[in-house]
Structures are given as C-alpha cells and as structure tokens.
Amino acid sequence: MSSAPAGLRIAVVGAGSSGLLLALMLQRQGHRVSLFERSGRLRTDGCGILLVKSGVEAVAAAAVPGLLDDLLAGGHPVQRFVFRNLRGDLIEASPAEREAGELPSLLIHRRAILDALWRHLDPSGFHGDHVLVGWSQSEDGVEARFADGRQWRGDLLVGADGIFSRVAALLCPERRLQYLGDRVWRGVVTDATFCTGGDFFVYARGRGIYANFFDLGPDAQGRGRTHWGFFQEEELPDDRETRQSLLEEGVPAAALAKLPADAAAVIAATAPEGVVANWSFDIDPLPALVAGRVALIGDAAHAMSSSQARGMTAGLEDAVAHGSRRAPRPHRSWRCRPTRRSGFRSCTAIRSAAAK
Q: Does residue 198 share a domain with residue 185?
C-alpha cells in the first residue's frame, strides 16, 4: 500500500523503528507524511537489540543514502553464541555464521537505531503528544481523531503503533493478545568484563531461555556495556493494577539466585532507571492487515515473542515492503493469508475476489 501516486497525504501512527523508516521512505518519494506519536518527543528509551542480518538488510534495501552506515556505526557485529545451563555449565559455543561480503547481525542499543533513522527524517512531519482515539474512512479519504480533539484528514493511514495498537483494534476488532507465560525484565549496565567481544550468552532452562546477556560495546564515555534479559514463568494477574505494580518490581531475589553468581551479579548491579519490564505477549495471525485506506505494520500487525529476536526486523521489513512498492488504488478491498517468511508468521496482502 505504499508508494502510490506522488503527493499523497499519509499518516503514520507510531514513531518506533518501523514507523520512522516508513515515514522516511515516503518522505523521500514526495508524499506529505505526518508522523504521529503519543509521546511528546521521540522515545529512544529501551535496551539492547539483537538486530538479525535480515533486519540490517532491510535497512540497506531502504536505499536511504548514509542510513546503513549510521546503523553499522551505532552497533557491532555479534561474534559468538554461548549456551549454558543454570549451573553455568557449557552446553554449546559457536561463532556467528557470516559469509564474506554479508551484512552482519548487530548488537545495538534501540536508541542508536532510532537516532540513525531520525537523522535522515524531515522532522517537520513529526507530531508529538497525539494520542489516537479513532479513525474512519470513506471513498474520499481517511480521518484520524486524537484525544485532545485534533483531527487529521488525508489519503492513507498506517498503524505502526505497536502491540497495543489503537489502529489495529479498530481495523481488526477480533485481535487479541496471547500471553506467552513470562514476566520479562531487560536492562543495560556498565560492565567491561562479563560479556565482551561481541558475545551473546544464553542461560537455558528446561522449556526455553531463563536469561540472556550480550555485549553492547562502549558508551559515549568509552565504558563497556552489557545488555541482559531475564524471563520468569508465572501466571498473568487478572487485574491491570496488579500487573502494573508487579512490573515496577525488580527481579525477585529467589529467581535471580538460580543463575550462576557472576551472571546474577551483573543484573543486581543495574540501576533501576536502566531496567524495563513487561509481560510477554504475541498475537495470532490477523484476518486483515490492510482495509481500504488503512494498513498495519510491525507489532501492530504481527507481534511476536521477544525471544525470537524478530520483532524489530519484521517491522523494518514491513516498512521497506510498503515504502518501496506501488500502492493499490486506495478504495480496493484486501484480505490476507498466513505465510512463512524467515521463520515467523506474517501476512501477505492479496486482492480479494470482490476487488477484482
């Protein structure tokens, strides 16, 4: 649904990595892009990302001069994967596979990715403090409505507003979050000894990952940094207030004690402001990702477990797919079908029989 006739008025809701990349590509095609974000500014908080090779390739495919160089400068290639059990015993260690001339998988802070995209974007199209509450469309256009009463009207609207997408809730009312069984903490800590040289450590439990650590390289002051993630299996509380209060807690001491002492010490040394926590969710494949003038990309379209290291990559791939192909006529109806792409579930928009 992307590069239709030049000069379209296009709204992108959500200024994460997929929304930024799509807005950037559409701006370069001459469209009038409005990028709406619920926060008052670009939100660059977060932790480390393993951006797998196909995600880096998606940025390269966007063909924005200088963008790939900025991305590569902001992170460093993963060199080795090391798997251990909870006693610290080695299960397997293997180098990251990379053919000559191939782009690498990157260990990189989320902030570095967003900053790289922002540097190439025309910021006049960014509109912070816009909380979408609804949208509607007709043959003549699409209208977005925001919590403070402001409205936008144009030709196309793209929901890049994440797993809790308001655009998706209206496009696919049947969309439901599926709880994956974990409360997840992530953090970044100053550390120059535990995890270095492009290493990615995984501590495995019987049914999957218990914790991971990877080298983030030096910060602006030249100090080494380690990203970590901690996954605890538990029931999801029924009420939202309890869920939120639990996310404000640190990793429970009893759970942390199951890790080897050196790994546990890295987590324990992290300042509270360097930690984020979430409940883990994904969604089942949706019956539609495009309806008339409205489309979904990224986690709004196909949220998946963070342990797959595919979420951001899938969103970047979506942005490139929409931002580099000629759009259908906006009034056409579309449906979608589940497909396999690089090992994760997604959807491919196809014309419905009614639209032919």
A: yes
Q: Considering only CA atoms, which of 226, 230, 190 is closest in space to residue 211?
A: 230
Taken in order 112, 303, 158, 173, is the CA torsion positive or negative?
negative
In angstroms, the CA 13 to CA 36 distance is 5
Is the pLDDT at 325 greater than 70? The verdict is no
Q: Which of 312, 355, 314 is nearest to 333 (CA)?
A: 355
Q: What whole-number distance in Å separates Cα of residue 47 and Cα of residue 139?
A: 42
Tokens of 98: 């990379």
- 137 and 20 in one domain? yes
Q: Assign 23 to helix, strand or coil.
A: helix
Domain termination site, one of 282, 306, 325: 282
Asked if residue 24 lies in contact with residue 287, where contact means CB atoms within 8 angstroms, the answer is no
Do 163 and 201 reside in the same domain of the chain?
no
- What is the mean predicted confidence (pLDDT) over 33-43? 94
Q: What pLDDT digit, counting tens, does each position of 156-181 carry? A: 999 999 999 999 999 999 999 999 99
CA distance 134 to 170: 7
Which residues have a Cβ under 8 Å from the Cβ of 356 and sit 6 or more positions away?
none
Q: What is the DSSP letter of 89?
A: -
Q: Which of 68, 20, 27 has its CA nearest to residue 44?
A: 20
CA dist 229 and 213 (Å) reads: 7
pLDDT(342) > 90: no
Relative orientation angle of helices 53-61 and 67-74, to the nearest 10 degrees:
150
**Domain enclosing residue 198, as ranges:** 179-282
